Amino acid sequence: MHSSDTASGFARAVDLVRAGGCLIYPTETLYALGGDGRSAQAAARVQELKARPGDKPLPLILGDLAMLPLVTAAAGDGLLRLARAFWPGPLSVLVPALPGLPAAVQDPRGLTSVRVTPHPLAARLSREAGCPLIATSANVSGQPAASRPGDLAPALVRAVDLVLDQEPWPAGGAPSTVVELREQGGAARLAVLRRGAVPAAALEAAGFVLEGVGMQGEKS
User: Fold this and answer.
1) Residues sharing a CB contact under 8 Å with residue 90, sequence separation 6 or more, in sequence order
2) How far is CA 148 from CA 49, 123, 194, in A?
């Protein structure tokens, strides 16, 4: 079911997330496939629909920085510096997952990927549903990601509970940059695990020392 360009369509999306459903919605870069990031049921369904390998954790987004305690209790100085410099924006940071979050959103070390999205609909959806949102790209793994409603795979559209296709549409382009913060000896170091929309030069300009720059990977 597609949402209409109305308040009632958005309200259905909020109710769906709260009920543990699965939907397609716009982010600042691409359309995302997701649901409540705290729901093991929603995470399992997203993995199934996307045919995503079980050892590849699902990333999360938030509506604002005040929601960060829903994802992690480890909000140290380095993370807050990153947040002030790049959030809202397409920078995903690996953080220790809060106990109780689904295994599908965590790597073997218990880390989860999170960012605060600048997309007005995605941010509002997270805030009004009161949860982090799973935000993997709305495509079957290995297939092209979509930044326009017409580019979404029809089979995936039929499989989800709702498509929130109201404007503004995603801007397209590169996916989010993924980094891991490694604070050692007072120095704020970043391992760049995936190149993306935030360039390495911008991270360095913000005062972070880069330990490595990963390869461009599948859009998350």
Assistant:
1) 28, 29, 115, 174, 175, 176, 177, 196, 197, 198
2) 19, 18, 23
In whole angstroms, how large is the CA radius of gyration of the chain?
16
- Which value, to the nearest 10 degrees, does the dihedral of the CA atoms of residues 193, 170, 28, 160 take? -80
Neighbours of 20 (CB within 10 A): 16
Is residue 129 within 8 A of residue 36, CB to CB? The reply is yes
What does the alpha-carbon distance between residue 201 and residue 188 come to, in Å, rounded to a whole number?
A: 15
Only one residue has tokens 């938030």, namely 62
Residue range 113-131, pLDDT digits in tens: 999 999 999 999 999 999 9
> Taking the model in full, what pTM does it have?
0.91
Domains, in order of start, for the chain:
7-77+86-172 (3.90.870.10)
